């Protein structure tokens, strides 16, 4: 069982009238803790701030939030050199009903989980994926954010488990490639690296942002654009990005198989030089 705190105080329950529980009215961040520190912390905070602004929730005090993470790590039995901190920001407790008449005092929960290291052959040979039947709804006002409403990912994630895949790739209602259930996707076509635009739906991951910036610093431009499913099948390489595992090459998607990943290997080398230790082969 994971260890949790609410506003810095240890807890093991959530109030029944908390709007996070009732309506998914809140946000979350899943932060890699490496050597006792939250990795890509400024990127997590930037996305959390955008989410709070969108939902009309007070952004937690950053100094307090950082302290609560360190205190949670100190109380936890997990290895602080390699574990996970999950932050949940709820709009708080209120009377029944969807709407909020006023801005509520946010409740901030921090939970510590064990880190899950990926097998070395996943980085070397790649992982198996599938295209999920579950489609993502278009034109969400919360597109790109990590809200607590994750039902599309729950359904798609259940599909990939049943089908025995490492990750499930999701399309939007118009058939464009968007992202994985727990990752962002990049495709390589010739010398071009692309990742789907996420203005309509999907989650803009912090590792996605870090990868785009790191590659651009190394002279590799990443095109953020609409990606058709036909582009996926025609791609020379495909790779996934996630805050916990960094980058992983894709070996298979449904019946399509990729045997070589030279560009992905270069991407991983660049990210390893930019602080993502998992990508060091």
- Please indicate the count of domains: 2
- Mean pLDDT level: 93
Task: Please report the distance between the alpha carbons of the first and last residues.
Answer: 32 Å
CATH architecture label of the largest domain: Alpha-Beta Barrel
Structural class: alpha+beta
Sheet bearing the most strands, described?
A: 10 strands, mixed
What is the CATH topology of the largest domain?
D-amino Acid Aminotransferase, Chain A, domain 2
Which CATH class of the largest domain applies here? Alpha Beta
Q: Would you identify the CATH H-level superfamily of the largest domain? A: D-amino Acid Aminotransferase, subunit A, domain 2
- Give the ordered list of helices and strands: EEHEEHHEEHEHEEEEHEEHEEEH
Envelope shape: globular
Strand content: 25-35%
Strand segment tally? 16
Low-pLDDT residue intervals, each spanning 5 or more residues: none
Radius of gyration: 19 Å
Helical residues, percent? 25-40%
Please count the helical segments. 8
């Amino acid at each position: 069982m994971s260890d949790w705190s609410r506003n810095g105080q240890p807890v093991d329950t959530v109030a029944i009238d908390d709007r996070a529980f009732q309506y998914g009215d809140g946000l979350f961040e899943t932060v890699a803790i490496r050597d006792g520190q939250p990795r890509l912390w400024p990127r997590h905070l930037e996305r959390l701030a955008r989410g709070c602004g969108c939902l009309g929730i007070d952004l937690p005090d950053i100094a307090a939030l950082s302290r609560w993470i360190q205190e949670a790590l100190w109380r936890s039995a997990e290895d602080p050199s390699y574990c996970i901190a999950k932050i949940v920001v709820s709009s708080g407790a209120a009377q029944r009903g969807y709407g909020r008449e006023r801005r509520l005092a946010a409740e901030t929960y921090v939970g510590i989980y064990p880190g899950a290291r990926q097998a070395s052959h996943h980085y070397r040979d790649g992982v198996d994926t599938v295209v999920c039947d579950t489609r993502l709804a278009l034109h969400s006002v919360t597109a790109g954010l990590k809200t607590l409403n994750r039902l599309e990912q729950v359904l798609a994630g259940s599909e990939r488990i049943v089908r025995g895949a490492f990750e499930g790739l999701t399309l939007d209602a118009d058939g464009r490639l968007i992202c994985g259930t727990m990752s962002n996707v990049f495709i390589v076509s010739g010398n071009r690296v692309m990742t789907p635009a996420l203005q309509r739906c999907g989650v803009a991951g912090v590792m996605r942002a870090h990868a785009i910036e790191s590659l651009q610093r190394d002279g590799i431009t990443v095109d953020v654009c609409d990606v058709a499913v036909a582009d996926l099948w025609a791609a020379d390489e495909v790779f996934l990005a996630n805050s916990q595992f960094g980058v992983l090459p894709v070996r298979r998607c449904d019946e399509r198989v990729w045997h070589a990943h030279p560009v992905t290997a270069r991407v991983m080398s660049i990210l390893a030089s930019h602080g993502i230790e998992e990508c060091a082969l």
